[in-house]
Design brief:
The protein has a 6-stranded antiparallel β-sheet with strand order 1-2-10-7-12-5, with no helix packed on it. Strands 9-8-11-6-13 form a 5-stranded antiparallel β-sheet, with no helix packed on it. The chain is about 5% helix and about 40% strand. The chain starts with a strand and ends in a 12-residue tail after the last helix. It contains 2 helices and 13 strands, in the order E-E-E-E-H-E-E-E-E-E-E-E-E-E-H.
């Protein structure tokens, strides 16, 4: 399993080894020992699975406040996404900075997004399925979001805004300057 930093503290790409033959393939997509050796959390308490029928579905930017903050381990099992992590730790020198990584079933890569980062993704293909593990349970009382198109963050989502499909929650998310943050 290859692990490489993406330039923001704690955000890493993980590429599991995939062994195949004419019957198919086998891949170890999670290993607690490797996570521990790399200083990453080993205990995940909930698995989430999302399906997006169309290209341009944007989910995010989401996070949970402490004490229910979540680390996330995200992978794509069908299709492709542009996955984005935004540093929302006000005491961080990279506050408001973001990093993006294309995840796809073909690339067989994953992203680890630590607590203190808002997370979102946009589907680059139709019929995309995303699986992600989290280190704490969903808590509506701690659930927060930031606008996907906040000019202070200025994320390049790679698609024209006219092609982006959002939930009502994401359409009405506050700008970073008005959102509840991590200290």
């Amino acid at each position: 399993m290859e692990v490489r930093s993406l330039g923001l503290d704690g955000v890493v790409e993980i590429v599991p080894i995939k062994r195949g033959d004419d019957r198919g393939f086998f891949s170890e997509t999670y290993n607690a020992k490797i996570m521990s050796d790399r200083g990453l959390p080993q205990i995940f308490v909930q698995d989430n699975h999302s399906y997006s029928a169309a290209r341009g579905v944007l989910r995010g930017l989401h996070y949970q406040l402490p004490p229910k903050a979540q680390d996330k381990l995200v992978r794509v099992v069908r299709g492709a996404i542009l996955d984005v992590a935004v540093d929302i730790r006000t005491s961080s020198p990279t506050f408001g900075h973001w990093v993006a990584l294309e995840l796809s079933a073909d690339k067989w890569n994953q992203i680890f997004v630590p607590k203190g980062f808002a997370h979102g993704f946009i589907t680059l293909t139709g019929h995309t399925e995303v699986l992600y593990k989290v280190t704490d349970f969903y808590s509506p009382a701690h659930d927060r979001s930031v606008r996907f198109d906040d000019p202070q963050i200025a994320i390049d989502w790679r698609l024209p805004q006219s092609e982006i499909q959002l939930s009502e929650k994401d359409k009405n998310a506050p700008l970073l300057a008005k959102a509840d943050m991590f200290d």
